[in-house]
Amino acid sequence: MVVFGNVSAANLPHQNGFLKAISSGGCDLMGHRSFKISTSFKTRTRRRRSAGPLQVVCVDIPRPELENTVNFLEAASLSASFRSAPRPAKPLKVVIAGAGLAGLSTAKYLADAGHQPLLLEARDVLGGKIAAWKDEDGDWYETGLHIFFGAYPNVQNLFGELGINDRLQWKEHSMIFAMPSKPGEFSRFDFPDVLPAPLNGIWAILRNNEMLTWPEKIKFAIGLLPAMVGGQAYVEAQDGLSVEQWMRKQAIPDRVTDEVFIAMSKALNFINPDELSMQCILIALNRFLQEKHGSKMAFLDGNPPERLCMPIVEHIRSLGGEVRLNSRIRKIELEDDGTVKSFLLTDGTTIQGDAYVFATPVDILKLLLPDSWKEIPYFKKLEKLVGVPVINVHIWFDQKLKNTYDHLLFSRSNLLSVYADMSLTCKEYYDPNRSMLELVFAPAEEWISRSDSDIIDATMKELERLFPDEIAADQSKAKILKYHVVKTPRSVYKTIPDCEPCRPLQRSPIKGFYLAGDYTKQKYLASMEGAVLSGKFCSQSILQDYELLAAASGPQKKSEATLST
């Protein structure tokens, strides 16, 4: 679901050259969860903000009541199963590659079950697609604009298990869209708290008369009836159609797609409706319409590595697990029988364990697959799963912009997906005097190799339409103090039609080798929720295989994660 994760790249001539550079080891993207080269620009020196207490004037909404929903209870039960699992006589040493949310989740729940994970991250920062960095002024810039939905039960449980529920800043239950035909104006879908689902969502749609006409609403509702009646089986069967194809098949006017689903498609997977699988849209609508607080949004109160990832790391370490940064894998070394012997790192170190997990993006996994595995159907199907390019832009202005909200905003522009004034929405980034807009630039395939100045110029032209009274493309109004452009040539997997059969289960056909990541099989597709759930499923598979794995780690195989040089 919306708006997650990016890594950055240099200005690359084309994607094939980019992947060739990775495979030859000459590029930092070998770091799992990709790599980062952020270009920044500053026009003047800024005074660093005081390190004193933050004086936040924006008002957040109380945390919604999520604990009694079916999906939350199901997620809570899965979490509890790890804590209540019988303590192993001989804990497994599980080596996990990639410290994004999937790898962190895998390590966390294995540790909860009494095992000893060793989590290896190639870069010097945690988080993968939710990584962030601090610049010389002390300001943070992130790999993506990260939104936490009420419909993310495993993520919400994770926050509760770590005791950090208060780090989510909940916003009013609305979806806010810019109006391209009326520059500077917005249209809202407001979900009333007094109504249960799906009535609150239906009410929000019916009350909005600016984006869709009544005849369009009626045709859209009729078109959705098969999904409502057919349930999950119908939703999964639509994987072979794009959003555009499905809308026309259901006789839904093209204007519905133009007004609503271009924005939703770009927010969900950074691509347009003519490419996105309709299954993705229907899963989101299903969650949003069936759960009262499903579409309610929260922002993290600060940078993700410190505010979310470090509490997970501290929990893992408190239970005997280990997390290492700057540990880049060069090769998966095999035994004679084709199982994993060790992970060879770029510094020459070999890491051995009782089980191995790859929790990296699918593109990194494909580059490091041993040749003898590539024709196995389980791995061969991965060829269709390819990360989608996306660009995340941060712009600091010399003044506080007025035409914005303390919320996520759908830009509905040709080049931008969603954006937010982070100086309003996030406590750590709060600034009463200047705005910092964080914007997702998508689709980005034609822009990923363009210069950062080109991207900023194009972004400013789009912002001129969103802020006609405050921003001009030539900076004759609000001035840019500085910017950061973060490019991700391969972000979340591109959810195009007919991808679903290619998504692998977490247990591979190679004994002792497992996968985690939002591209693996789970019902939340390419999202933070999907990454966390995949880690739980991966941990569950390892626990189910405990006897087999423990028996295999006899005298001929070391029973603990070892290092040799």
Topology:
Blueprint: H1 15-23, E1 39-42, H2 70-83, E2 93-97, H3 101-112, E3 116-120, E4 132-134, E5 140-142, E6 148-149, H4 153-162, E7 168-170, E8 174-178, E9 186-190, H5 199-207, H6 214-237, H7 243-249, H8 254-269, H9 278-290, E10 297-300, H10 304-318, E11 322-324, E12 329-334, E13 340-345, E14 350-352, E15 355-358, H11 362-368, H12 377-380, E16 390-397, E17 409-410, E18 416-421, H13 422-425, E19 436-441, H14 452-466, E20 480-488, E21 513-515, H15 528-544, H16 546-552, E22 562-564
Helix pairs in contact: 2-4, 3-10, 3-15, 4-15, 6-9, 7-8
Summarize the structure.
With 565 residues, the chain is of the alpha+beta class.
Q: What does this protein structure show overall?
A:
This protein is an alpha+beta fold and 565 residues long. Among the domains are: 74-126 and 303-385 and 497-551, FAD/NAD(P)-binding domain, CATH 3.50.50; 193-293, protoporphyrinogen ix oxidase, domain 3, CATH 1.10.3110. It has helices at 15-23, 70-83, 101-112, 153-162, 199-207, 214-237, 243-249, 254-269, 278-290, 304-318, 362-368, 377-380, 422-425, 452-466, 528-544, 546-552; strands spanning 39-42, 93-97, 116-120, 132-134, 140-142, 148-149, 168-170, 174-178, 186-190, 297-300, 322-324, 329-334, 340-345, 350-352, 355-358, 390-397, 409-410, 416-421, 436-441, 480-488, 513-515, 562-564. The strands form 5 sheets. It has an 8-stranded mixed beta sheet, sandwiched between helices. The chain has a 5-stranded parallel beta sheet with strand order 11-3-2-15-21, with helices on one face. A 4-stranded antiparallel beta sheet has the order 12-13-14-22, with no helix packed on it. Helix 3 (101-112) runs parallel beside helix 10 (304-318) and helix 3 packs parallel to helix 15. The relative contact order is 0.20.
